Amino acid sequence: MIRVVLPTHLRTLARVSGEVQLDLDGHATQRAVLDALEAKYPMLRGTIRDHGSQRRRPFVRFFACGEDLSHEPPDTPLPEVVANGTEPFFIIGAIAGG
Questions:
Q1: How does pLDDT run across 46-90, given as a tens digit for each residue?
Q2: In CATH, what number does 2-93 get?
Q3: What residue ranges do the domains of the chain occupy?
Q4: Which of 6, 14, 55, 78 could be bridged to 82 by S-S, CB 3.0 to 4.6 A?
Q5: Distance between CA 46 and CA 37 in Å, rounded?
Q6: pTM of this prediction?
């Protein structure tokens, strides 16, 4: 079981409160988490990653264990403490401005 923390606007869209829990088939990777998340909450398709390219959308970041995983390849294994549900996988809406 993977624990995922979504930003407020995506929790509202998915109609969930708090963390989302997902069961994965196979290895825990960013791609596997996002595939499972979009399968369970189809209304999130296209909000976190592009429909066609499957690339992370601008201003969306991924964190686990205090580390920014946003630029890691999508099939890189997640840390063991995330894979076993001890620590959550965070999807964060980044802010830009000047």
A1: 999 998 899 999 899 999 999 999 999 999 999 999 999 999 999
A2: 3.10.20.30
A3: 2-93
A4: 78
A5: 12
A6: 0.91
